[in-house]
Every structure is written in structure tokens, then in C-alpha cells.
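Weekend entry, working from home. Most of the wet-lab plans are on hold until the incubator is repaired, so I used the time to fold the two sequences that have been sitting in the queue since the last round of cloning. Logging both here for the record. First:
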Amino acid sequence: MGRLVAYTSRAAAAEVRLPWSAICTNSRHWSRVGPLKALISLAVLDTAPERAYDDITRMASMLCGTPIALISMIDERRQWFKSRVGLTVQETARELAFCAHAIQRSGEVMVVNDAAEDERFKFNALVTDDPKIRFYAGSPIITTGGHALGTVCVIDRVPRQLPHYQVHLLRHLSSEVAKLLEARLTLTPARSIAQRQGTKN
């Protein structure tokens, strides 16, 4: 059934949809305040596709041999895809997101060999309906401040295993995404605007 991450009460609480003010004043949600602020400060949500990120998802898909690869970002209500291969939707509800589980264990690659046999996911709409996820592996994107913002993940529609070298590959790719994201903070205003509009520099 794969390596499982405990679905703690803290993780469950983090998935409750509350306004920002409620998140900041409710101790149950404190563990996600830092990452959400960090994500907002990067101004990456809802930006256009960028070649550097797309290159990473294509590499993840090819090297892991999966039809789907994603760079996902998790905010308080949704999972948004900065880059995607093999999937047409731009976002999903947070409560459906495998990646919302993966970011609870920063630094560890979460592997689900068969989602249909996993108690956390077997009734998930992304498993029972399109895209019919059976295999998932996601490596958290962690900032230098230690915040897990999302994941680089690969997905298949059939159960499978992930060799150790591919686990290390995903960890490396998520580290590269973290570097790309934090580089946004050093961009000049003009270049930052161009990048958000999807200009290839």
C-alpha cells in the first residue's frame, strides 16, 4: 500500500476553509500561517505558464515514466498547478489534494503505490473519477525558511512502485522549484511583471 503519512488532526484542521483572519487567530491553523504568507509573498499564484517550471514537470514525467506530472501550490482553499503535464485542469479543491497530505511531512517524499487501497484516498473523487489516480508520489517544495508551499509530484492511473533513484530525483526537482520561486523575490519590478505574464526570458 506504500509509505503512508499519518493524517493527523492538525492536517485535518488545516484543510477547513476559513477566512484569513480566522486562520491567523485560531491556534489549530497556526502551522499553515507561515507557508501561506510565504506563498502570497512570492506572487506566483494564478500566474501564466513559465518555461523553467514546465521543463521540470516534463523531466519528472519522462524520468519517472508517468503520464502526469505537476508542480502544485497549496493555499487555504485549493491546490493550484503552476505547471502540469497530462492534466487539463488548473486547480482542485484542497480537500481533494494528495499534495495537501504530502506537505505535512516536509522533506519526505510521500509515495502512495495504490490509492484504491489507501484508506485516506480510496473514496477521493480524483481516484474514483477522472483522472482516476492510482499511483502518486510527491516531494514537498520547501523554502529556505522551512515552509512547504506545495509539491513536485508524479501520478499514474495504474498501481506501481517508485525506485529509490526516482525518489531522489523528485526531491532534487522540488529543490530546484524552491530555488526558482525564491528567485522571484530578487527580480527587478519590470522583469517580475514580465515573468508573471509568462514572458520567456
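Second, folded right after the first finished:
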Amino acid sequence: MRLANEVAAKMRPEKLLVLGLIVGSVLSGGVLVTSPASAEQAAIKALDTDNDGTLDLDEVTKAAQAVFDRLQKDQEDTLDRKEAGSRLSAKEFAAADPDKDATLTKDEYVALVQKLFKQADVDGDGKLEAKELRSKAGRALLRLIR
């Protein structure tokens, strides 16, 4: 410890800062830690086609349709539980499947996304901000549109 203190005392402040960042990164598993808000901001930036800093229902619906198309591997125009993967729990999948055929059509998938949008839009302005995407419904919505 004494040697570390002597080395630190001789280093310029900017080098000490860089060393601290490197050590911190190594101690945190080698991954730079980002704030939870950055995930919501990244989603908004990626999906916000009108660049207003929020997500509206049209932007979210288009994203959901694109994700649905990407997920359906068998080209049967439906998603089964396996294709939905970890986006939906078994309970959520069953609740989103009103005809109980063990698949989701694009319309059923989009209806779920729209329902979650409305739940996350607590101020009722028709737009989701980062803080609304941090809610339970907002986080569930993000799983379905990314």
C-alpha cells in the first residue's frame, strides 16, 4: 500500500484519473457501466423517426411490425412461443393470444404493443419519454420493439 501511495503522489493528476478509470473498468468486469436512462434514450434515438425526442404510437407500431417480421423464422405469418423468445413470458404470451392457438399473428403482437404503449403513457399525451419507458409497461414495450 505504501508503494501505491508513493507512485500516486508522483503521478500527474490526469494520469491518475486515467489509471483510476482503467482500474474501475477492470473491477467492474471490464465493461464500462452506463446509466439505466441511456438504454431508454438509445431506444428513442433509434426509433424516433420524427426526431422530437419521444416515441409516438405510429413509431412504436412500425417498430413492432419490423420486429415481428424479423422474428418469424418459418414464414407462417405467426410467432410461436419459441420465436418470441425471451420477449414474452409464457403468461404474457398466453394473454396476448386471444384465440388460444399457441401463436401470435402480427395483429395480436401489435395489439399487445399498443396496449403497453397506452399503459406506459401515464400523462396521456400520446408520446413516450425516457422516464415513461422506465415504467414496468415501458420496459415490457421495449422488449417487444427492439
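Plan for Monday: verify the second prediction. Confidence is low (pLDDT under 50) at residues 16-34.
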